[in-house]
């Protein structure tokens, strides 16, 4: 079989326009053509899929997650609304410190499967938790999980180096030295990183956050990443800026910029506490923000100023974040949440809420920009065949079909996709994961979860 033809799509949202009643011809990992009546152009052996009624979108790009936290979901005893931050940290980190290598693997399978079901085709995970009992091969097992599900995976190799005695929130059994962190980064880069077109595996350097790392961890990460042409990432602007000012005399954005940890190859997670002046600094340097809307409900002191970011020209992507502050791995749901949150606070702001279609772009081409990818995030000839489809011939969509670009952000999608494809390969067909037993995967994950004592 040489490719796939999605025949008679009701709408194709390319990222630049909406095309009605067209076909998509896919050859290998890439889109070959989008247009009407492409059957004659399809080589012999092309699989033809009836796409009547389908709205087809670029695959979603998740730019911030913590897969391992899938094993602490839906627990009232760890509820942010019932605990102070210190109480929560005292409860959650001893649990994280007991995770094994297998726990990290099965939590990753869990998160990646849920992401794929809901249209995500590329996922960035910020893996900063390295308990000594789990060893150093956690990201190796994440790459294994991503290959199993079939998602494009960017591994953010995180680290915490500052001890609690110096103001960190991280238990000593989860600390690493900067040198051992850099050595493992070198190993991962050599073993996995592929910077080529349509690559399925990339590595990024991602110190957890300034409050939990020595300054040298950031400066050495910066040096190594630039040496290899890698993306840089960290948490910033999620309530720590005054702590950083007390320690270093600068708020977080200035502290990171002074080190050079900023620029078109760098993006931060969250940014809900940043001033408009700081956002202007990000725009000027080309530094991006991964907006994680659902944690704002639980832990954000204020709603992230997305309208100001867009007005200033800050690059914006979307992320699920981990289950410490978001109990699902559904980026499509986050897209709807992001739009609705901005509508909630619109009356008190000087910039208008971006259009619903802009939020779709944050979750597709915006995320691709943060990850330094020019081959994903849009549907066009030559781009990766990363896409998802929704059959809109259901009662759920009556009255909505006139505006495919706004559908997800404004209306929300309450079910899995009818198809998710990565690099021309179907990874979710609307009913299951081709070649995989979902029930078995779930049972294996539950067995790993059962080894943890809460």
From TrEMBL:
Keyword terms, alphabetized: Hydrolase
Gene3D superfamilies documented for this protein: Metal-dependent hydrolases, Urease, subunit C, domain 1
Keyword Hydrolase: yes
Alphabetized InterPro entries for the sequence: Amidohydro-rel, Metal-dep_hydrolase_composite, Metal_Hydrolase, MTA/SAH_deaminase
Pfam families in UniProt: Amidohydro_1
Domain annotation Amidohydrolase-related: ranges: 55-427
Tagged with keyword Hydrolase: yes
Gene Ontology molecular function: hydrolase activity, acting on carbon-nitrogen (but not peptide) bonds
PANTHER family to which the protein is assigned, alphabetical: AMIDOHYDROLASE-RELATED DOMAIN-CONTAINING PROTEIN, AMINOHYDROLASE SSNA-RELATED
Family recorded in the similarity comment: Belongs to the metallo-dependent hydrolases superfamily. ATZ/TRZ family.
Protein name: Amidohydrolase family protein
Originating species: Paracoccus litorisediminis
